[in-house]
Amino acid sequence: MSTRTLTMPGSTDQFVITERPTSTRTRKYRPLPEGMTLELAVPMLAEDVTAGDVVTGAFFPSDSGIRRLSHIEECYAAAPVRFGVAGACTRCDECADYPVEEGFEHRAYNIIRLAVSEDREPCALYDKGDVVAVIPAAVAAQFPALGTVPPEPELFTVDGTDYGPYEALPIDMWWHAYGKISVTRDTAAQIATDLVTRDAGCGLTAEWKGDWLVFTWDERYRDEAGRQIIEPDADGRYLVGGLWPWMEYEAPEENAV
Ligand SMILES: [Zn+2]
Question: For the segment 149-197, what is each residue's pLDDT rounded down to a tens digit?
Fold first, then answer.
């Protein structure tokens, strides 16, 4: 598609809708379902968004009056609620900015929550006057659901090294460096090979026993020797982690920007 410039009733600003970016190694723009494109998107006040509208990004104000679409990595079908303190969830950073105070549980903010926090994303909160780009629900309904497109993989390396990067399924908001990442058998094999060849002598080693990936360590690696057996899950993937810190990979060229 080409870039389109649109207007919106009640505003003199111009809203520039650019093509949805392709993913980079660190910014994962999950593609829209087959046939659903930003040709179908329009600017809309957050307070006018209705259930099922597909939100694809926001237009932040600019002095020039020309607002370019800021794309979000995960588009979502809106489930809007007027956000008072009582609407805050207890688990995401966005809602933490709107604390519940004794006696003020029903205080209304000028905030619309367009989506509630899920495993991988915090709540989507907008001021009611913010402008978002949406594909209206009735239009979006003509295409497959957003969830039918698999998420973009994420890349990890071992903290402090240049190993990998290893491709894994996306992690959730609560993931930490000693958490597990879900990788294919091929990637698990690469992780094991890198450990055995590049970290030889560290006291931790890995070997395959049939379908099992077995990590074994001695007193050089931890106070007490031990073993971790990883069996493939129902999808044949391996959850690897806990014995060293992972780090989300950033490509050098992106660091330089
Ligand atoms: Zn929240």
Answer: 988 888 999 999 999 999 998 887 778 999 999 999 999 999 999 999 9
Query: What is the 9 CA–ligand 1 centroid distance (Å)?
Result: 30
**Whole-prediction pTM value?**
0.74
Cα separation of 8 and 126, whole Å? 18
Question: Residues 188, 124: one domain?
Answer: no
Q: Mark whether 187 and 118 lie in a shared domain.
A: no
Residues 58 and 182 in one domain: no
The CA distance from 120 to 76, in Å, is 12
What is the domain range of residue 246?
Answer: 154-256
Mark whether 17 and 127 lie in a shared domain. yes
Which residues have C-beta under 5 Å from ligand 1, the single-atom ion? Answer: 89, 92, 95, 117, 123
| Alpha carbon distance 120, 74 (integer Å) | 10
Last residue of a domain, one of 124, 148, 172: 148
